[in-house]
Amino acid sequence: MSLTLESSLEEALGAAPAKTLDRAFGMKTVGDLLAHYPRRYADPGELTPIRDLPIGETVTIVAEVLSSSFRRMRNRPGAMVDVVIGDGVGRMSLTFFAKNVGAAEWRSKDLAVGRRGVFSGKVGEFNGMTQFAHPEYELFDDEDAARRRADARAAVPIPIYPATSAIQTWQIARLVGRVLDDLRTVPDPLTPEIRTREELLTAREALEAIHRPRSRNDIDPAVRTLRMHEALTLQTALLQQRDAVRALAATSRPATPGGLLERFDAALPYTLTPDQETVGAQIADDLVGSWPMNRLVQGEVGSGKTLVALRAMLQVAESGGQAALIAPTEVLAGQHLRSITKMLGPQLAPLLMPTLLTGQMPAADRRKAALRVASGQALIVVGTHALLGEKTTFADLGLVVVDEQHRFGVEQREALRAKGSSPHALVLTATPIPRTVAMTVFGDLDTSVIRTMPAGRAGIESYVAPLAEHPGWFNRVWERAAEEIAQGRQVFAVCAAIDTAAKTAEAGEQALLAPEGGKGPRWGVVQLDEALATHPTLGGLRRAVLHGKMPSEEKDAVMQAFARGEIDLLLATTVIEVGVDVPNASTMIVLDADRFGVSQLHQLRGRVGRGGVPGLCLLVTEAEAGSVARERVDAVAATLDGFALAEVDLELRGEGDVLGAAQAGVRSSLKLLRVVKDAALITRARELAEDILAIDPELAAHPGLREAIGRRVTDEDRAALAKN
Q1: What is the DSSP letter of 51?
Q2: In angstroms, what is the C-alpha Rg of the chain?
Q3: pTM of the entire structure?
Q4: pLDDT tens per residue across span 640-656
Q5: Can you give the three-state secondary structure of 490-527, one letter per residue?
Q6: What does the alpha-carbon distance between residue 412 and residue 462 come to, in Å, rounded to a whole number?
Q7: Burial of 234 by CB count in 10 Å (0-12 exposed, 13-18 middle, 19+ buried)?
Q8: Which CA distances in Å does 6 have to 31, 231, 527, 713?
């Protein structure tokens, strides 16, 4: 049989194995299987410590048979095989049940004393001894084992693959071996010149070496080669995407003397910060360029990104163009509309007619809003995913603004852009992104950064309330909240769940971090509301609840009441994480703070200290000192610098979380690339991609790279990378 990377697994392996691989890992092709790389390698000469095996987990070990016997069952047909294996330090038992004595006798002889192999199963315990019940195993060939003992240098590493109960690691290894044996020439993303210069292997050599290494020395060059393949295919695809936008003709949207933008700037009660001026000038230039703007603006919480975006909207509106701002939640969309309307003031707001369009609006209101948008009356449109719907049309969409890009995928951004004729795009994020992540995730966008903060901010003080060491501090947190409210200020209290009794969280909410000790969050909004109802001080104050499962009108009514100062204490989930602006809110209390990521905590803290009122952030946690969960919370309390926290976040979180593939629930094309560790390699791949596309934009002379992009970098992958 002659296979290619595009060959189906059914063709390569048969229907049953193909079905198993598809169910277990979503694999369809030979390329998918060969991109399922070993997670580690076992050495037959290095036995894994049995005494450290965790009870209840499925593990794979290398061990030697110490004893083997079988006995008939007393009360039912069949026999049981008892085997003891050891690694020179500890020992464990294996138990097998057979329907007949002959099968048991064969199993006992197969697992003869002195034989070694790979054993995999769920770790249990019986009579005080670690046990595998009915484990999968593969014994080393006797002749091969003898050869290994005779020449230790010839020890061949055993690949250990990510596996499931349906298919074990050595079964995957056998299937990989079968397709490698039948695989024809593998297209190489790298030209011979680049391979030689970068000291890398061919694609075929790399696949052979990572799946069937002859020695440990084979593995690192293979991994480095395949990482470069991943980095180069992604960087080239991102640059192609950028170049595709630049190949489009854009409608020039210049500002005019005495126009809307000039009138808006003249009425501003404050001056722009230096960074707002710099980024505003970059955007203004983009809007009159020959291709559509495609720019990412990173800015600290409260740095004034919305103002920068509004100035861009006004410049576009001067030529009759519409601007659409898409926000991740209804609460945030409503907040943006009110904020924009307020900033425009009574003179400009009627001219631009800012309009809200969301999926949960009453049908009649939604129809009116959609008509304003379609007719071109509304020059500024703010909404949620409803803006992406087929029924939403624009008269002249000139600018797309995406708020909080990490909540949206690339395909959603492009779906909104498709509603206009090559509109400009402005992407905003208050989650600072380290350079290598920005290059890997947003490599198709030009990037601007707003670091300077507007004058007049009173600042924020952050403290950890460590209940593991000081349980009494919990009462002090609420006393402190009461003191702030007594001074006429308002307080947020954020929980990691809606209702812990019903185990209710918000649909579509960013995944909470894994619990410490396997327990769920202690506090839900429902439980906190019940507890505070009996508090001697807070129980009698104006209190309200806000979470994502409430009806849209109710959520909006609560948020507006809080903004008007009619609510003293707002108990909420992360629905208030971004964009909510209440200058009189002085205090942010985050319960179960260790359940949130660094960037989430930083975002939540940014909801206070936004006016002349000093901000206070209290991070309540039961995480033990020294734990990773506690490190996250301590790191946030230690600095207000979001860019410094972004670097800390990279260090404390797993790479997969940074790239977001696991959270997005899709299979990413990036299997080996590590954004932090491989920063230099990613930078080099970017340089190579730029050089390649400069002389060969269609990749006509680079067919292997063109095929790799088509095969491995999908819109779904890019969307996964964007949700970090």
Answers
A1: G
A2: 30
A3: 0.65
A4: 877 778 777 766 654 44
A5: EEEEECCECECCCCECCCCCCCCCCCHHHCCCCCEHHH
A6: 36
A7: buried
A8: 6, 21, 53, 14
